Amino acid sequence: MAIDLTLVDKLLADYKKPEDLIGENGLLKQLTKAVLERAMQAELTEHLGYVKHDPAGYQSGNSRNGATKKTLKGDFGEISLDTPRDRNGSFEPKIVGKGQTRFTGFDDKIISMCSRGMSTREIQGHLEDICKVEVSPTLISNVTEAVMEEVKRWQGRPLEVVYPIVYMDAIVVKIREMGHVRNKAIFVVIGVNMEGNKEVL
Question: What is the DSSP letter of 89?
């Protein structure tokens, strides 16, 4: 899903210093709170089978029942979340589960396990065993695909015409391919540009 850059410009209209973005009450923390709460509301809509204020929900046997406050800790610090409830008490959000108080980089964990050659199903089982979190294979695939898109964009970026100094090195790592583990050389090339700054090429 592409991000609307005009929306980003609007969000950053009052940006004057880094604290406005990553500070205690910065934009990133506010966005994290808003996205998580919207995601839980979407999960509740899916659980109930109808959107808020839809007449289809009248006498359906279950309905929205306000929200519960929860403090969530993560890489962003602490945020207060409004977790939606249903009248029957049968709704259990997936993105921030009942009793969950920490929200740390699941994307990083998924990418790390994928880079070690683990399959989607192995990653799913590992997150359930270790982190006590149920993650769908689709989410795992979406995370890895999003990273691959970033990698492709980075690989296709324009380079300088001249790098006066270039360093080359390689490290040998074990990689799983077609059910077999093989040694592969991963090459790293670092160039020093005309301004004296190092870039990974």
Answer: S
Per-residue pLDDT tens over the stretch 155-199: 788 888 899 999 999 888 887 777 788 888 888 888 898 988 888
Mean pLDDT (the chain) is: 77
Tokens 């160039």, residue located:
191
Please count the other Cβ atoms lying within 10 Å of the Cβ belonging to residue 94: 14
The whole-angstrom separation of Cα 35 and Cα 30 is 9
Report whether 73 contacts 126 (CB < 8 A): no
Distance of CA 166 to the CA centre of its chain: 34
Domain boundaries, the chain: 1-95, 105-157, 165-200
Whole-Å CA distances, 50 to 13, 46, 54: 36, 7, 6
- Structure-model confidence comparison of residues 1 and 83, the more confident one: 83
Of 15-24, 31-40, 84-93, 121-130, where does mean pLDDT reach its minimum? 121-130
**Can you tell me the distance from the alpha carbon of 101 to that of 80, in angstroms, rounded to the nearest whole number?**
10
Q: Residue written as tokens 């004296």?
A: 196
